């Protein structure tokens, strides 16, 4: 591969990553239910249990993400993105028709179907983005996961703040955004997101580290900008319009990385031409003696034969850290420890996110948009910090990634207990803590799964883990929160109900805190069981660093 060709591939890879960031920026629409749930509850005269089950139907859509996982190894990335875009347009478009009262409220079962379609749409988007980018940046899985999942975390805040700034929190217009904007962004990403041939050079790895630092900085600036807007707040139309324009510019700014990479590749045209003129001389100088070449070939053939023999012996039972089929992964204890600990983390987080509107009203807050944004923004910080920090300590000390999940579970339990006490300001602190810990869990588990079970079947493996979102939503939100809330609630005219006071969700928070502690224990167990794997990953990078140092002398 020529120098210019190599850099051109690199530029296209970064352009694909930018489009992936944009897709993730709009694929957090599943976390926005609280923005329009009250409108649906009022229009359809639902109880809290019925409303929560609608939310569960939305999350059940993620269970059908298994289809996206199976398709990821059989269909090209653009087709997977297109399926997700069309599903989202239909699912959220139907909800908009109901909330805007363009049509009569649909039967409950039909609303469940459209909720499910909207929820499933993001699994196709996330699968296309994560599988492609993890494969394109195999040596930086932590930062890739942190950045992409971080923008998913910001997605809710971006949609919420844009709707607040431009449409005064109108739930009907909010649903128009959820239907149309993801569809348009996915159509753009179809043009650029695809797998790119890898470069394994030390220089390429250092370049990736520099560029990821830029993406991290931009993402943090976007998060701080959104947080500042939430804290300041404004009803001034001009101010809101300026906010929206600056936000869009910030979201477009990562384009500077692939543009720079393209310019860099064009500058190398002349350099490559000079290299080609010197090629005969270089070949003579670098050619190995025949005897040496023959010896190398013999050694490689012997090593290959040994590897083949090992594969034949051990093919039926790969060890952790090697490529696993889905059935092989599911036959290990480590998979189920990771699966259940993931359930404890994301299930409790989803319950708080889905019920934020009612939690806020129960604790005396008429406007809950600030809490929804805080959960989203701090979810971003949890994702992006944990991705980069876990990668740093893995490279520096071989620290097992599951330890970061364990730390997040302890903090989650503290946040839930604070909300159970219903102290003044507890919902502000609780929103921040739950958002951050939920973000850590999502960002860290993505690379953990690939490191323990390989990348070959990663698309399907990822979507099996994501089954925890609908399962957790059903257990903690649909059953636990729904039943306990209705048991405390007072019926309202028309068939709904309402509840005000700390008792509405107090027991729910305590039970979820206990579940978080169970998750903590499982994460510690997984860290102990996989310590050898992370030690091997750490040691495998030592020779490369030593070689790079010696070459520089």
Q: Could you characterize the architecture of this molecule?
A:
79% of the residues lie in helices and 1% in strands. It is mainly α and 553 residues long. A two-stranded antiparallel sheet has the order 1-2. α6 crosses α7 (141-167) and α9 runs antiparallel to α10 (237-252). Residues 13-259 form the Nodulin-like domain. Residues 322-534 form the NFD4 C-terminal domain. Residues 1-28 form the signal peptide.
Can you give keywords for this protein?
553 residues, Nodulin-like domain-containing protein, single chain, mainly alpha, globular, MFS_trans_sf, two-stranded antiparallel sheet, 24 helices, disordered C terminus
Secondary structure elements and their pairing?
Layout: H1 3-26, H2 37-44, H3 48-60, H4 65-71, H5 77-99, H6 108-136, H7 141-167, H8 171-189, H9 202-232, H10 237-252, H11 256-277, H12 279-286, H13 290-314, H14 326-330, H15 333-354, H16 356-362, H17 369-397, H18 402-421, H19 426-453, H20 458-465, H21 468-488, E1 490-491, E2 497-498, H22 506-529, H23 531-540, H24 542-552
Antiparallel strand pairs: 1-2
Helix pairs in contact: 1-6, 1-7, 1-8, 1-11, 3-6, 3-21, 4-6, 4-20, 5-6, 5-8, 6-7, 6-20, 7-8, 7-9, 7-10, 7-17, 7-19, 9-10, 9-17, 15-19, 15-21, 15-22, 17-19, 17-23, 18-19, 18-22
Membrane topology: Multi-pass membrane protein
InterPro entries: MFS_trans_sf (IPR036259), NFD4_C (IPR056555), Nodulin-like (IPR010658)
Pfam families: NFD4_C (PF23262), Nodulin-like (PF06813)
């Amino acid at each position: 591969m020529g120098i210019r060709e190599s850099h051109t591939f690199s530029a296209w890879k970064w352009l694909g990553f930018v489009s992936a960031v944009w897709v993730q920026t709009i694929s957090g629409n599943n976390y926005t239910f609280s923005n329009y749930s009250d409108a649906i509850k009022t229009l359809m005269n639902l109880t809290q249990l019925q409303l929560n089950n609608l939310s569960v139907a939305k999350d059940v859509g993620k269970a059908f993400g298994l289809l996206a996982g199976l398709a990821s190894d059989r269909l090209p990335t653009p087709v997977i993105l297109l399926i997700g875009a069309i599903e989202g347009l239909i699912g959220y478009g139907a909800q908009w028709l109901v909330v805007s009262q363009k049509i009569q409220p649909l039967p409950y079962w039909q609303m469940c179907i459209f909720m499910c379609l909207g929820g499933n749409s993001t699994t196709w988007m996330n699968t296309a983005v994560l599988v492609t980018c993890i494969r394109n940046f195999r040596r930086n899985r932590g930062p890739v996961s942190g950045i992409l999942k971080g923008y998913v975390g910001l997605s809710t805040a971006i949609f919420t703040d844009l709707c607040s700034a431009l449409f005064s929190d109108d739930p009907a217009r909010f649903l128009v955004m959820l239907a149309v904007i993801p569809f348009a962004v996915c159509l753009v990403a179809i043009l650029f997101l695809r797998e790119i041939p890898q470069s394994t050079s030390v220089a390429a790895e250092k370049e990736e580290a520099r560029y990821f630092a830029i993406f991290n900085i931009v993402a943090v600036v976007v998060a701080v900008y959104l947080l500042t807007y939430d804290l300041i707040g404004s009803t001034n139309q001009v101010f809101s319009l300026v906010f929206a324009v600056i936000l869009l510019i910030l979201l477009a700014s990562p384009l500077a990385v692939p543009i720079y990479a393209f310019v860099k590749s064009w500058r190398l045209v002349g350099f490559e031409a000079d290299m080609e003129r010197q090629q005969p001389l270089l070949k003579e100088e670098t050619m190995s003696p025949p005897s040496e070449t023959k010896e190398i070939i013999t050694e490689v053939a012997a090593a290959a034969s040994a590897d083949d023999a090992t594969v034949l012996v051990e093919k039926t039972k790969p060890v952790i850290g090697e490529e696993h089929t889905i059935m092989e992964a599911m036959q290990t204890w480590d998979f189920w420890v990771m699966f259940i600990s993931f359930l404890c983390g994301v299930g409790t987080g989803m319950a708080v996110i889905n019920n934020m509107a009612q939690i806020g009203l129960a604790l005396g807050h008429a406007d809950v948009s600030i809490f929804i944004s805080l959960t989203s923004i701090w979810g971003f910080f949890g994702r992006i910090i944990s991705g980069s920090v876990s990668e740093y300590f893995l490279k520096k000390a071989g620290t097992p990634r599951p330890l970061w999940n364990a730390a997040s579970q302890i903090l989650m339990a503290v946040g839930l207990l604070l909300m159970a006490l219903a102290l003044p300001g507890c919902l502000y602190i609780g929103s921040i803590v739950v958002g951050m810990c939920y973000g850590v869990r999502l960002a860290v588990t993505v690379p953990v799964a690939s490191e323990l079970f390989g990348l070959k079947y990663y698309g399907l493996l990822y979507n099996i883990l994501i089954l925890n979102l609908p399962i957790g939503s059903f257990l903690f939100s649909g059953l636990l929160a729904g039943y306990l809330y209705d048991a405390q609630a007072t019926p309202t005219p028309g068939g709904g109900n309402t509840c005000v006071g700390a008792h509405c969700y107090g027991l729910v928070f305590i039970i979820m805190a206990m579940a978080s502690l169970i998750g903590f224990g499982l994460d510690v167990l997984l860290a102990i069981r996989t310590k050898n794997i992370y030690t091997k990953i750490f040691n495998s990078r030592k020779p490369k660093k030593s070689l790079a140092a010696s070459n520089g002398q």
